[in-house]
Amino acid sequence: MLDGTPLGHWALERLSKKPDDQIGAEEDASTADGETYDAAVKLVLTSRKAAVSWLQRQLRIGYNSAARLVERMQTEGLVSAPDHIGRREVIAPAPEGTDAAETADVTEPVAPEPTVEDASVIGQEAARAGAPVTANPFPARDVRRAAWDEAWCKELGSDGMDIPDALKPAAKPKKEDGSAPADEPKAAGQ
After folding, report:
1. Which residues have C-beta within 8 Å of that of residue 72, sequence separation ≥ 6?
2. Measured between alpha carbons, how far is 129 from 123 in angstroms, rounded to an integer?
3. For 22-67, what is each residue's pLDDT tens digit?
4. Quick one: three-class SS letters along the chain?
5. Where residue 21 falls among pLDDT bands split at 50, 70, 90?
6. What Cα–Cα distance (Å) separates residue 103 from each residue in 40, 51, 99?
7. Alpha carbon distance 176, 188 (integer Å)
8. 49-72 b/e (C-beta count within 10 Å ≥ 16 → b)
9. pLDDT tens column, 132-160
10. How far apart are CA 44 and CA 10, in angstroms?
């Protein structure tokens, strides 16, 4: 479209050569990429995980950058090609001096799940604290949810279906003669 115009010639020249400041920026980026790659390799070898999204989160980089790093590791023989569901295995051995406990997935101990009895106690405490029935922390179709609700209702002497005062309609005053207020329609036949 701009072929043969001064603007078109300028654009072609601009795109075909790299300015000096752009060359320096690329060298800085390649140095940073080298440091990022080294950090990525260390993470993958010690954790024995080669998932792109995991690496992205660990290094706080973009998904495409993490994917390029993993592909480079595959080219260098550190990780396998993705299997039929996209998982990769770490082929290279763990770095020397790395303890086996460091390479294993170490998770913090998790508190045991509350029992049905625990859920009842939690429900009672929530009712005493003034929490609404909607504060039940257990998922739907979980027996602990029902136990929590039952204990909450029992503690407050409610069925849990009470309408909050703020949502209740205001009572309309009645006329002294016993007839309906003027704004209410009269029933047919009266």
Report:
1. 37
2. 10
3. 444 444 444 457 788 999 998 888 888 888 888 888 888 888 988 9
4. CCCCCHHHHHHHHHHHCCCHHHHHHHHHHHHHHHHHHHHHHHHHHHHCCCCHHHHHHHHCCCHHHHHHHHHHHHHCCCECCCCCCCCCCECCCCCCCCCHHHHCCCCCCCCCCCCHHHHHHHHHHHHHCCCCHHHCCCCCCCHHHHHHHHHHHHHHCCCCCCCCHHHCCCCCCCCCCCCCCCCCCCCCCC
5. very low
6. 15, 15, 7
7. 23
8. bbbbeebbebbebeeebbebbbee
9. 888 888 888 889 899 989 998 999 888 76
10. 46
Q: Which amino acid is at 126?
A: A
CA-to-CA dists, residue 1 to 4, 9, 13, 15, 159, angstroms = 9, 12, 16, 16, 75
How far is residue 82's CA from residue 89's CA, in Å, rounded to a whole number?
8
58 contact partners, CB below 8 Å, separation of at least 6 = 43
Q: How far is CA 146 from CA 29, 124, 135, 160, in A?
A: 58, 13, 13, 12
- How many other CB atoms are found less than 10 A from the CB of residue 186? 8
CA–CA separation, 172 and 71 (whole Å): 74
